[in-house]
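Work Package 4 report. The design task specified in the project plan requires that, given a folded chain encoded as structure tokens, an amino acid be chosen for each position. We show below one input record used in the internal validation round.
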């Protein structure tokens, strides 16, 4: 582990350090809501997935959904966190039109998951550890629709009662890049676990960004919270502009007020939304309709045994077993689909070469065609076969690139061996044919041969190029080199 180059904001009074803590709301993958049996499918007709509990009809009682608790525990385990065998649901009281009960059921002083850690993979291949403070379960609110009627706001309660995990980090991040790496890593872990789809655009992962600035070496100063930022890029931008704003406030002799702000991506600035509300404003108290949540340690163990191999373990395995760099391994494990594809190509083959092809040629082709790896026009099986054709010297690396292009363009996932046969691309390993080509090139370039022999070694590359050209790229490169060396000397 190493400290990344420190990120600093410079002001009139010198350099400032930025302190960041993130609160992420992650929508739990579950067919039913946290305390009711209503469905949770995205994009349903308004108010078609609402039970009496979600609509807060008088006398309705919440019933905890075991699967939502299991998802929170799995997530806690995936974040190397303490699982609290006893936790408590509280009422967080506030008034809003999309909250019919007048309170949200959440966890306050006793969350289901306690302290944990997450490892950030930085672009330079280093890692940084960030503390997780807690993870608690809570209900989502409904949605107010202000654009459906000229004079009225409408309410859709489909989302009311859907389970959320609020994942709170320690104020351990020091740059927009680290905050970006945190969100990407958290998303990867949630997707591996299958506990949240991590889709920020659809709102299934939302982020509140806490930012403060300080002189290096100082204690923490007052923070501001930028609410509901909905993409990794905007989180990074919001930190940058909010830090700059705070530096100006301090340097002008003012004091940063603790408050909730909004990021306006169009204007590239944050603006005040409301002064910070405090815990006592919500009158938290244990929900009398719910017993404390008590977990059986054996059940937690069972969930632990059921966890998949997580990205850090997979990355370590790629570095150890496949000899990949930290950076390459980190990129390949980012999405499970990519990792599975890569492993299928690498199995029983040159694993580094496989990584180069997947991250180089394949990623470029997917980018160009706008496809994801699940819909890759070339399957892992056929990319593997292409590597085999190189390994057994049927084709050279250069011809392999050409065959790959043809495979991508075909779009029907053709067998590379068939393309090699149909287009006559087999590598020429017949020494006689190579010698003939070398002789012809030397005869045509007698002047260059003389220069080479009088010491101009650099011309060797020129001869290789000419012979390859004469053989339409199909000469075996090693043999071409050998024959040339022999004949030129
Ligand atoms: P609240 O309940 O008021 O939101 P929390 O204690 O839950 O307060 O903290 C919320 C977030 O603020 C956490 O992610 C924490 O890491 C972050 N945080 C706390 N102090 C600071 C600070 N001085 N600068 C930046 N972030 C901070
Ligand atoms: Mg908070």
């Amino acid at each position: 582990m190493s400290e990344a180059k420190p990120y600093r904001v410079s002001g009139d009074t010198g350099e400032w350090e930025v302190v960041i803590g993130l609160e992420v709301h992650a929508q739990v993958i579950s067919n039913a809501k946290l305390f009711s049996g209503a469905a949770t499918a995205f994009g349903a007709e308004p108010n078609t997935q609402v039970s009496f509990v979600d609509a807060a009809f008088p006398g309705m009682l919440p019933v905890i959904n075991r699967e939502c608790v299991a998802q929170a525990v799995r997530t806690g385990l995936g974040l190397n966190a303490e699982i609290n065998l006893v936790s408590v649901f509280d009422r967080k009281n506030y008034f809003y039109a999309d909250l019919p009960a007048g309170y949200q059921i959440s966890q306050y002083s006793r969350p289901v998951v306690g302290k944990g850690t997450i490892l950030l993979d930085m672009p330079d291949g280093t890692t940084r550890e960030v503390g997780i403070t807690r993870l608690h379960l809570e209900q989502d609110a409904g949605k107010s629709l202000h654009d459906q009627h000229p004079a009225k706001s409408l309410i859709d309660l489909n989302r009311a009662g859907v389970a959320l995990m609020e994942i709170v980090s320690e104020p351990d991040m020091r740059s927009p890049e680290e905050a970006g790496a945190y969100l990407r890593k958290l998303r990867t872990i949630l997707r591996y676990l299958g506990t949240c789809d991590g889709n920020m655009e659809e709102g299934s992962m939302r982020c509140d960004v806490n930012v403060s600035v300080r002189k290096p070496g100082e204690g923490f100063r007052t923070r501001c919270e930028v609410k509901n930022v909905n993409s990794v890029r905007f989180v990074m931008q919001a930190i940058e502009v909010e830090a700059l704003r705070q530096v100006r406030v301090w340097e002008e002799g003012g004091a940063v007020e603790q408050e909730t702000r909004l990021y306006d991506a169009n204007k590239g600035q944050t603006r005040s939304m409301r002064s910070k509300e405090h815990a006592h404003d919500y009158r938290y108290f244990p929900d009398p309709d719910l017993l404390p949540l008590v977990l059986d340690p054996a059940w937690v163990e069972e969930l632990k045994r059921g966890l998949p191999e997580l990205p850090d373990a997979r990355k370590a395995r790629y570095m150890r077993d496949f000899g990949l760099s930290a950076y390459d391994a980190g990129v390949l494990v980012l999405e499970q689909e990519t990792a599975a594809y890569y492993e299928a190509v690498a199995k029983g083959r040159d694993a580094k070469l496989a990584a180069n092809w997947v991250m180089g040629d394949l990623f470029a082709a997917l980018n160009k065609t706008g496809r994801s790896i699940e819909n890759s026009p070339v399957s892992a099986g056929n990319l593997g076969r292409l590597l085999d054709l190189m390994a057994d010297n049927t084709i050279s690396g250069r011809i392999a690139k050409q065959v790959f292009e043809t495979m991508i363009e075909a779009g029907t996932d053709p067998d590379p061996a068939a393309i090699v046969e149909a287009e006559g691309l087999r590598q020429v390993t017949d020494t006689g044919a190579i010698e003939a080509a070398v002789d012809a090139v030397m005869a045509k370039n007698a002047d260059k041969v003389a220069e080479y022999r009088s010491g101009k070694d650099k011309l060797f590359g020129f001869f290789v190029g000419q012979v390859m050209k004469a053989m339409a790229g199909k000469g075996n490169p090693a043999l071409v080199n050998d024959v040339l060396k022999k004949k030129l000397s």
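The domain at 431-488 is CATH 1.10.10.410 (Arc Repressor Mutant, subunit A). Validation will be extended to a larger panel in the next phase.
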